[in-house]
Amino acid sequence: MTKQDLVVVGAGPAGAHLAYEAAKLDLRVLLLERLPRDRVGDKVCGEGIALHHLKNAGIPFPTGEELGTLINGIDIYPPSMENYVTVSQRIEGEICDGWTIDRLHFGQRLLKRAEDAGAKVTDHAHVIKPLLDKDTVVGVQYKDTTTDKIVKITAKVTVDASGMSATLRRRIKHPLIENKIALQDQAVCYREVLELKQPPEPQDRCTIIMDERYSPGGYIWIFPRGGTIANVGLGTQGGKGHRPKVLYKKFIASKPMFKGAKVITGGGGAAPIRRPLWSYVADGIVFIGDSGCHVNPIHGGGIGSAIEAAHVVAPIVKNAIEAGDVSTTGLWPFNVEYNRHHYGQKIASLDLMRRLLQEVGNKEFEFVINNRIITTEDLLRANAGEGIQLSATDKAGRFIRGLRKLGLLRRIQKVSKAMGEMLRLYKDFPASLEKFKAWKDEVEQIYHNLGYEL
After folding, report:
1. 20 to 30 A Cα–Cα from 210, which one of 7, 50, 298, 365?
2. Distance between terminal CA atoms of the chain?
3. What is the pLDDT of residues 58-90, one digit of tens each?
4. CA atoms of 454 and 192, how far apart (whole Å)
5. DSSP label of 261
6. Residue 372 lies in a domain
7. Same domain, 17 and 116
8. CATH code at position 213
9. Is the CB of residue 202 less than 8 Å from the CB of residue 88?
10. What is the DSSP string of 272-333?
């Protein structure tokens, strides 16, 4: 094959949408996928996506077999499920917050759009390693799993969109690149798509339950997919020896609504839930999607943020190629743009809230919700990465309600303040490598002040 402008490893939402956008920019694009093409999109996840991600990326909204149901908020419950708080991301004038989708049909549409735009797609391609010219990535080597033939592809820029496996990132030696993700910064999940005896209620809301008995370090989800179909699963913090499938079966058995449910499909998986990578780029290579840790650390959702990353990086790659500079410096604008103006700043801030939630047990979380220590408005601000900002009157009221858990209240306030500081830092992400170390030291200091390990 002739040399490509861009080779993209992995045809998930990040890789497929990047292939589409890059092809539309007249770049020669090769998209490599390990699975057979008719299974692209077949992945274990909650299958939820916010409207604003598709709107920002210019992707038509889901319809037909691809569409599960419209969603107008997420209700978050403590273990007793006696009270809840709601998070909504409704854009004024829009029909909904977002949707649940059929992940396979959605993935097939993104793949077809990429091909229709001019990207070449090769399936059954098991990528083995990056090709290097000194320290610069200049392509990949893969095995055609139908023939066992070894193939080398060269490209001006290579993109690792291979998901949690991070096929290329794990093999790159660069001072800015983190090869491994700590086990405690991963969510290990199990989920099933169920046909229930009765439709889950309400039909337009997703349910999240915080209950360490079944989902230690994570949460349980019940996402309606239309009619009597629901996507139900749970995630746990990695590295703790939890067995998600066993915990899931115990949870299902504890709830009458699941009695007699038919399992349509099931399976396990993992996702990174942590701060952003220090750099999404190195010499000749870019990391997006799960490989780039473009995942919300609170709920583990990564479809929308992966698509947003692809949307942001496409013109930056084109500019770097045209300028003849695909070094870390030439690709650095992706770090700046995604962190300052897109999802990176939100991931960074929410990682601190994720750490806080993993400290809080069932009794504490029950207390927080039942006594309105954290409200719907707080979660809306926190979901935007802004922390929890209380007025003087509000602080006094919560202080009185929280006297029985004064240490917890102070901890929430401390972490909330740190979230605001983290947001400020990421909105001022350094425009050049020269200023990066001093900026990184400030980020690390926030973690140190809270007693969190990096």
Report:
1. 50
2. 42
3. 999 999 999 999 999 999 999 999 999 888 878
4. 33
5. P
6. yes
7. yes
8. 3.30.9.10
9. no
10. E-SSPPS-SEETTEEE-GGGGT-S-TTT---HHHHHHHHHHHHHHHHHHHHHT--SHHHHTH
Global confidence as pTM: 0.94
Sign of CA dihedral 160, 162, 163, 169: negative
Alpha-carbon distance of 262 to 192, in angstroms, equals 10
Q: Is residue 298 part of a domain?
A: yes
Dihedral, 311, 312, 317, 318 alpha carbons, nearest 10: 70
* pLDDT above 60: residue 183: yes
Q: Is 273 within 8 Å of 300 (Cβ atoms)?
A: yes
- Whether residue 415 sits in one domain with residue 355: yes
How far lies 150's CA from each of 32, 33, 127, 159, in Å?
14, 15, 10, 19
In whole angstroms, give the CA distance from residue 229 to residue 146.
36
Domain of residue 211 covers 183-272
Residues 294 and 353 placed together within one structural domain of the fold:
no
Q: What share of the chain is helix, strand, coil (3-state, %, to 5)?
A: 40, 25, 35
Question: What is the average per-residue pLDDT within 240-244?
Answer: 96
Nearest to 372 by CA among 68, 83, 155, 152: 83
pLDDT digits (tens, 9 = 90+) for 311-354: 999 999 999 999 999 999 999 999 999 999 999 999 999 999 99
CB 309 within 8 A of CB 292: yes
Question: Is the CB of residue 302 less than 8 Å from the CB of residue 187?
Answer: no
Measured CA to CA, the distance from residue 239 to residue 167 in angstroms comes to 21
Query: Other CB atoms closer than 10 Å to residue 406's CB: what's the count?
Result: 10
Identity of the residue numbered 94: E
